[in-house]
């Protein structure tokens, strides 16, 4: 059996074990969501968040797992996750973004249906083959539309969830912690990790959710005159942490307006100063953000892990061979020396492998 068919089979059997009262419609819904993700029209984040909060307040939440894997690029996230600190607004935003994510096609769906039909035929799914075949014929004739859970499923399990892209699932604990802290006040977050680990991507996600201000460590490279042998010999010495402190972190802690200058790699000079107003969440992303001289200025920190194999693939995909070589021979060794010498990962509040 092909690997994908094997995974479909395993997930369907687990689904039926978790929900033994499933009917054909519930199997079809599982397969539809696995293929296409969210089946609802999501017009706006605000509308999605409002519906989530109202449903959370009204429904009897089941004791099912907070996160259930689907057979594809999506998961079901129970509204019970809101009890872990995640806000309806954040879940609504993830739902909205997930509705725009890449999904499968009708051929993928039909392949999954064939696996389900085989399980029914084998007696591994407790649905009569005749009933399943009739329901499938009706669904096919209608063009495989999105459908509801069966009355039996709703009455027994009280499903209340949203279908979310797998790319966001590893960050749910971090987002829950951020939401809980933001209820109490401002938060300064450091995002650490090696090259191509997804630091900038996570920062962009947080910006899309919270409208936060993001500062990039790449804007604080050492100027040429600072690159002395003594400075470059320091562990973690190859960024201008003094300027980051003076222009960004200290004003942030004082709730002052921030005026800072970005380093321009093309000219090796500082650009004209930019004025930035702080937001409830402020993010500083990039390697060396958690240098010991900086870490006490943050409220929360996260380290993003990436395997050497995946890191190499990403870097080679994004860069020319010559530029990629600089990562492997120059920048990554410096990062690894810093991570090991200053135990950076151990000092972060969250460690996430999001590959």
Structure description:
- The structure is a single chain.
- By secondary structure, the protein is of the alpha/beta class.
- 47% of the residues lie in helices and 14% in strands.
- The chain has 14 helices and twelve strands.
- The strands form four sheets. The chain has a five-stranded parallel β-sheet with strand order 5-10-4-11-12.
- A hairpin with a 4-residue loop joins β1 (67-69) and β2.
- It is elongated.
Secondary structure layout:
Elements: H1 3-18, H2 24-36, H3 45-58, E1 67-69, E2 74-78, H4 88-99, H5 106-121, H6 129-141, H7 151-157, E3 161-165, H8 172-182, E4 187-193, H9 199-210, E5 213-216, H10 229-233, H11 241-253, E6 258-260, E7 263-264, E8 269-270, E9 274-276, E10 281-285, E11 300-305, H12 308-318, H13 321-341, H14 344-347, E12 350-353
Parallel strand pairs: 4-10, 4-11, 5-10, 11-12
Antiparallel strand pairs: 1-2, 2-3, 6-9, 7-8
Helix pairs in contact: 1-5, 2-5, 3-4, 12-13
Give me some keywords for this one.
355 residues; alpha/beta; 5-stranded parallel beta sheet; 3-stranded antiparallel beta sheet; 14 helices
